[in-house]
Every structure is written in C-alpha cells, then in structure tokens.
Amino acid sequence: MAATVAALIPIGFFLIFAVGEGPAGWSHYIQALIPIGLVLLAWWKPRLGGYFFIALGLLLGIAYPIGASHQPLATTALVELIVFIPTAMSGYLFLRAS
Hints:
Radius of gyration: 14 Å
Distance between the termini: 12 Å
Number of helices: 4
Oligomer: single chain
Strand content: under 5%
Mean pLDDT: 87
C-alpha cells in the first residue's frame, strides 16, 4: 500500500500538467503511463516491479540533471524530489513487501 502511494506522487505530478495544458498535454499522459504500468506490474510481481521502479528512478534521476543542465539548481532539485526519489522509494517499498 505504501509503495503504491509513493508511486502516485510522480503520477499525480504528470497528470496535473496533462490536465492543466488541455489538449496539448497528451505527452504528460504518456509520461504517467510508464509508472502506472509499473504499479500494475508490481501488484502482480512485487519483486520485479520493485527492481524496475528502482532502476527507473535511479537512471532518470541521474540522466535528468545532465539533460537539464541549463535549468537552475533549485528547479532540478525540486524535480528530483517530486519525481525521481518517490519512484525509487516506491521500488524499495515494493521489494520490502515481496
């Protein structure tokens, strides 16, 4: 249960932007589909889903600051706190539940 709640943080973040941008926000729906699919996988196979969540959180958490080097440090840190840390934490919690 706690792992699913942790996964809902980045999902909600993407869906807020998707709804707020109207028809142009379709790309945020696609970004939300990946963690939604991983939650479904983790409910079925918690260990496998946990490993995927951790890998996704770590890989994107490392790649994002490299790709967004033009943004201020505060913006990058906020995105890391809202999107990537809860994703990796959700994976850890799914592994603990398995």
